[in-house]
Amino acid sequence: MKFDHVAIEASDFDKRVHTLVNDVGMTLIRHGIRYSTGQRIAMLGDETGVKIELIESDAGQPTLAHVAFRADEAAAVDQAEAGLVEAGWSTVNPVHDLAAAKARTTLVTDRGGLHVQVIAYEPDSPDLGRSGEAGS
User: Fold this and answer.
1) CATH numbers and ranges of domains, the chain
2) What Å distances lie between residue 97 and 22, 24, 80, 87, 103, CA to CA?
3) pLDDT above 50: residue 21
4) Of the residues 36, 59, 112, 114, which has the fewest C-beta atoms closer than 10 A?
């Protein structure tokens, strides 16, 4: 697996998206809805392939939601979840498909509360650039 993105929860969602696009120069890749809560999300990227998933939240200050790692194929998501659970991690969101991202994913947490997403994209996922690299 390799690093894919970091997710941040923020209460002023529209303002944060606007600031990251207009002031920082990130590109809005897509909007979506969070699987577990129905909150709005925005996937943003830059020309280097770095991505930030901004998640609408009631939290006062921006907070880290999760760190995501990309698996090469959908079956590897299931295997990663099983391996992490065997190693003592807990499942937060079981393996499922994300239609908007054209991806398969799971969310797990370690004993200290760090949430990690494992995600595998279909070749035509909007979260991959034309070259198949995130944010390209």
Assistant:
1) 2-121 (3.10.180.10)
2) 31, 31, 15, 24, 6
3) yes
4) 112
Q: How far is CA 89 from the centre of its chain?
A: 19
Q: What is the C-alpha separation between 110 and 128, in angstroms, rounded?
A: 27
pTM of the model: 0.84
Mean of per-residue pLDDT scores for the chain? 91
Cα Dmax for the chain? 44
